[in-house]
Specification:
This protein is about 40% helix and about 25% strand. The protein is α/β, with parallel strands linked by helices and about 280 residues long. It has two domains: about 100 residues, no CATH class; about 120 residues, 60s Ribosomal Protein L30, Chain: A (2-Layer Sandwich). The strands form three sheets. The chain has a four-stranded mixed beta sheet with strand order 4-2-5-10.
């Protein structure tokens, strides 16, 4: 049994939040460069250039990439041969989240759903973090982190289609979601699609799909083909960078597919803005 100190986890989580707040990941930056080079609309090309300039300034001056610093979302794989010494893993992640958001001067965004009162003094600064745990074999802890802003989350949708809807029904639903979203999620966007499972499994899968490296190819050839189809259809919508019109509305479409009940076809679409702040570490 391997022991990992509570404080080591706190520091690791704190550090990735500070880094992601100001440094756009390489895959997202490179995807934006490619989008700018291939965009056919001069207006959208200039908008993407400004997005990249903003990313450069944020990195050089260690300033937040966006004023919406998001909610902290984690996908954590805990090895079955790991013991956290000095406290609970969940508490360590929350403590690291609070430290990271404070130290990087990132906005505290969590509030009560009806009064809209900020919870920074009641629960903690930008707490609680959204954490999805999985128990796996091994003696390590894998932590995937993303900052999820309100603009992109607000346009995300889930439904349960009839099985007969098939791939055509999935494509139609995804297109409808992105079309209705328009400029609100700050495109160029990354689109996560969860297929199958149950209603909540599809939603979680669509969120996790956003963590995949932009430019990577789905390991399932059938899903890779469907991703290409969706990418083409979404970019035909002509929304463009920040809704200014153009050919590069999406930087990538990532699908996670799961077995489902014979009577249903759950589908979820989770959208991430151009400031796709995410990372992965192993402790």
């Amino acid at each position: 049994m391997r022991e990992i100190a509570f404080d080591d986890i706190v520091k690791a989580v704190r550090d990735i939040i500070v880094h992601c707040g100001t440094d756009l990941p390489k895959d997202a930056y490179d995807a934006l460069v490619t989008a700018m080079e291939t965009e056919k609309s001069p207006v959208s090309k200039e908008v993407i250039r400004q997005i990249l300039e903003n990313a450069d300034i944020a990195k050089d001056e260690k300033r937040p990439l966006c004023q919406d610093t998001g909610l902290a979302v984690f996908f954590v794989k805990l090895g079955d041969e790991v013991k956290v010494k000095g406290g609970l893993l969940k508490d360590a992640i929350n403590k690291g989240t609070e430290q990271g958001y404070k130290d990087a001067y990132l906005r505290a965004s969590t509030c009560e759903p009806f009064s809209r009162a900020n919870l920074k003094d009641k629960i903690g600064y930008n707490l609680p973090a959204i954490i999805h745990f999985d128990i796996v074999a091994g003696d390590k802890i894998d932590i995937e982190y993303a900052a999820k802003g309100g603009g992109s989350e607000n346009v995300s949708r889930a439904t349960v289609l009839a099985p007969a809807a098939g791939k055509d029904g999935i494509v139609a639903f995804v297109k409808e979601v992105i079309s209705n979203a328009g400029p609100n999620p700050c495109p160029p966007i990354t689109v996560g699609v969860g297929i199958g499972g149950t209603f909540e499994k599809a939603a979680i899968s669509s969120k996790h799909a956003l963590f995949r490296t932009l430019g990577s190819v789905n390991e399932d050839p059938e899903m890779a083909e469907l991703e290409e189809r969706l990418m083409t259809e979404i970019n035909k919508l002509g929304i463009g960078a920040m809704g200014m019109g153009g050919t590069k509305t999406a930087l990538g479409v990532h699908i996670e597919s799961n077995p489902c009940h014979i009577a249903s076809l759950p589908v979820s679409v989770n959208v991430q803005c151009h400031s796709s702040r995410h990372t992965h570490i192993t402790i």
